[in-house]
Model the fold of this input.
Amino acid sequence: MAKLYDFPRSSASYRIRIACNLKNVAYEKVLINFRENAQRSDAYLKVNPSGLLPSFEADDGTVLSQSMAILRYLDATCPEPALFPKDMEAECAVWEMALIIACDIHPLNNLRVLQYLENELGADQDARNAWYAEWVRLGFAGLEERVSARGGTYCFGDSVTAVDVCLVPQMFNARRFDVPLSAFPKLVEVDERLRAIDAFAAAAP
Ligand SMILES: N[C@@H](CCC(=O)N[C@@H](CS)C(=O)NCC(=O)O)C(=O)O
Done:
């Protein structure tokens, strides 16, 4: 059976939990406990030398890290429901929107960055939270515009795509860090709709 190296609060892993649920991909969870720094253990570094979650081991032994690469792999190996549209322009638009979260927001706010701010640069909790909120605010502002332009029932049109799979975990994190969301009504509306879908609800931390 496939394996997902996972921790409930890892939002990049949350993306893969959602995708596997949507596609009915069965997998075994291997818990990598952030509280014990298990992502930096020798055993896990053999799976992913970058020391980050998630990693996914497919039935055939293929091992991948980087959640967006895993999403693309799952879409190729279990095509239904498709998370990336077949039409090239539409597919690129989905990548563009999903990468606002995966490249412009999430990496600036992951655990090791927040720990560096606190432990090496002496940022207190208020400074750390202000940092967190700033990158969410800027990323979500651009995404809100795009969802307003191209969204329908979901972030891009009327089918669930990779953008939605990235949005829900990022919204969860934003709420966890008390980031104000009133400037992003479209994202709030779509997130609420998505969280009502079983595959999303069952993947929540
Ligand atoms: N770009 C990577 C990001 C991976 C990442 O930052 N994972 C976080 C959890 S969401 C992590 O493992 N953090 C552990 C740490 O920072 O020590 C992806 O999409 O998979």
Notes: Residues 88-201 form a domain with the Glutathione S-transferase Yfyf (Class Pi); Chain A, domain 2 fold (CATH 1.20.1050.10).
